Amino acid sequence: MYGEVTLSEVLDARENRVKIQREIIEKYKSTLISLTLNIPGGLKVYPLSIKTYNEAISLITKHLKRHHINIIYQTDKKEKTGYEGFFVVEGNPLRIKKLMVDIENSCGLGRIFDIDVLDNSGNKVSRSELNIAERSCLICNDNGHACSRSRRHEAEELQRKVIEIMEDYFNNQFAKKCAEYACRALLYEVCITPKPGLVDRNNNGSHKDMDMFTFIDSASVLTTYFGDLILSGIKYHDEKPEILFEKIRYLGMLAEDDMFFITNNVNTHKGIIFSLGVICASLGYLYKNEKDINTDNILKISKLMTSEIDDDFKEITKENAKTYGEKLYTSYGITGIRGEAAGGFPSVKIHGLPILKKLIKKGYSLNEAGALTLLNLIANVKDTNIIARSNIELLEGIQFRIQNLIDKKGIENISNDEIIDLDNQFIKMNISPGGCADLLAITLMLYFLESLT
Length: 453
Description:
- By secondary structure, the protein is of the alpha+beta class.
- The chain has helices at residues 7-28, 47-66, 93-106, 144-150, 155-191, 212-235, 241-262, 270-288, 295-306, 309-314, 324-332, 336-342, 346-361, 366-380, 384-389, 392-409, 416-429, 434-449; strands spanning 31-37, 71-79, 82-89, 113-118.
């Protein structure tokens, strides 16, 4: 089906299209929508153009349904001269043309779409009949027909522009969808209730400087950055993953700036900006390299991106340790979220996602499954936030108690009241498992992403 086409084949296809249009109109005596793509050059059919064609079909179908336009008949013609779509619809041809112009003018791919509308006599409805300006040139924005007649632009230039439009559209579409999943993960994490020591719908946990609205504010400004991080993964897809990590670090700093601004200097999401930032960049990297978007691949690229972080700990001693995280490492060998990332988020892979999926499969709501998954994470993760508010001995004691409860009853049989009791104890001790909350958000993100496959 792929392959270069000759001018003669293009002209034959055009004549054949007119013939098909005439036959369809004669049979159905109704308005006809005829779709083709403006693909310059001899190669008309290739994976990206097919994807664009399918998107056009989807957009037309949805727009007709949105306006309650009945589709009487639909068919495709798929040849190497280009894919063509035909819709027979009920409705005034002028109204239908206006709807199709909406798509051509407003969609990012619209300039590539050529959506003709013919009345039941076979007459093509023009834009001028609706007092709508003719389409502009892809390159210079002058009148498209004038540029085409004068051959002002080389075919190669037009081909590059068309490919650029298609790639930008699908890259941004992918980034937008995944950034929405990241935002949902943050919002679901804070909404899951009850959560020991953490902000949820019942209370503010062990936090006096933040509430649910603080988290909502923070998540709202971070969504754009998650999309930018995905696009960075796409942009630098031909670099080594560790180079990609260096490329995105400044974006993470900008995200932190906006987070602190919107929250009045409250640290709601600094850890998750790092963690989900790495995962988002991994998503773009995988997408552009046409690799499967699945948990194993995402965590593999995340690990490769951050593998050199492990080297940061090799030079740290008790004498030169400065940050709290460095002191934890020299005292207990705890590497925190940096170690999680450098290891490919093993806590999420082992103690987070499998538990969440198992519980949901058993019929638990996402809220119930999320609350229980958090307990499992607390029992198995050396949460530096808890240590920072107390000491490692208290953390180990808490982990022992929760693990004993899980072993005794089974994770799925722990009641809401028992979690609330833990919440009250955590608040009394002024401890908060913020590191595990971040891991829960990552778990949710990966769970949402499974819907892409």
